[in-house]
Structure to design on (271 residues):
């Protein structure tokens, strides 16, 4: 039996744009039919052509590819030397992203992932100090429910444990605070949102800085009350890399903010 989490609170929908669901208090937006089925096919074939990883029925782990700026883990900034050119079919998505004028900058770092059926990603907060606020995630191939959880004491404690990779072979995962596990001390504010194939998820504000996101590893999901066998899902996570003076964070969630945690550790080191 698939264990399910509650559905999200009801979204706000502008009747003139029925494909856009928003949760304004969380800074969260889900846009369905963001790409066409033809674009979806192009992205899927490009993934397999460029990765040299043909889809294998036996694959159990996520496969990742990176385009645009990579990270320099010695400085926690953008690498000036490691850059993979962004292919045209990905660059073509950029003008369509719902950037907030004067607030968001266009993403320059792209992580493509393939999740074989049943695979997930542990709950985490994408590193605050290294990426611009808005995170964009395009789903294709198949839909999946994404779990959102308001970070509390337990997540803050886990962020202070030594980091581990999220299990993929990718560098962009190393800088993330992985915050999985159950929290019995705090009331849960947790639910899962179905991300349909060809939808774009946008995380800003609280959903970006103060909530974790992740995908449970499961063979089946419950969608609209029905058990559905999970298919292979692809995603492109699009982020902007902070540079120089922009590196850092002044969010309202110091417990799960890598910038604040680093400052705290530096202060302790000086005592
Ligand atoms: O697959 C996704 O939609 C999300 C991936 C993710 O959270 C990440 O790479 O940070
Ligand atoms: Fe993430």
């Amino acid at each position: 039996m698939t264990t399910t989490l509650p559905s999200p609170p009801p979204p706000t929908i502008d009747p003139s744009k029925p494909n856009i669901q928003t949760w304004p208090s969380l800074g969260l937006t889900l846009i369905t039919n963001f790409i066409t089925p033809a674009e979806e096919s192009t992205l899927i074939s490009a993934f397999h052509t460029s990765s040299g990883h043909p889809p294998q029925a036996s694959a159990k782990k996520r496969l990742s590819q990176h385009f645009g700026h990579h990270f320099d883990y010695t400085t926690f900034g953008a690498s000036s030397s490691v850059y993979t050119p962004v292919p045209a079919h990905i660059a073509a998505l950029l003008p369509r992203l719902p950037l907030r004028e004067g607030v968001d900058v266009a993403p320059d770092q792209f992580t493509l992932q393939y999740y074989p059926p049943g695979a997930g990603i542990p709950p985490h907060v994408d590193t605050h100090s290294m990426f611009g606020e808005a995170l964009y995630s395009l789903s294709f191939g198949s839909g999946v429910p994404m779990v959102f959880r308001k970070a509390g004491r337990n997540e803050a404690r886990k962020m202070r444990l030594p980091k581990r990779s999220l299990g993929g072979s990718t560098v962009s995962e190393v800088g993330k605070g992985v915050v999985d596990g159950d929290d019995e001390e705090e009331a849960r504010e947790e639910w899962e949102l179905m991300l349909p194939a060809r939808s774009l998820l946008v995380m800003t504000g609280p959903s970006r800085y103060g909530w974790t996101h992740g995908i449970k590893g499961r063979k089946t999901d419950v969608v609209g009350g029905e058990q559905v066998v999970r298919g292979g899902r692809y995603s492109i996570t699009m982020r902007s890399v902070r540079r120089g003076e922009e590196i850092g964070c002044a969010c309202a969630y110091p417990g799960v903010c890598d910038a604040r945690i680093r400052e705290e550790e530096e202060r302790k080191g000086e005592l």
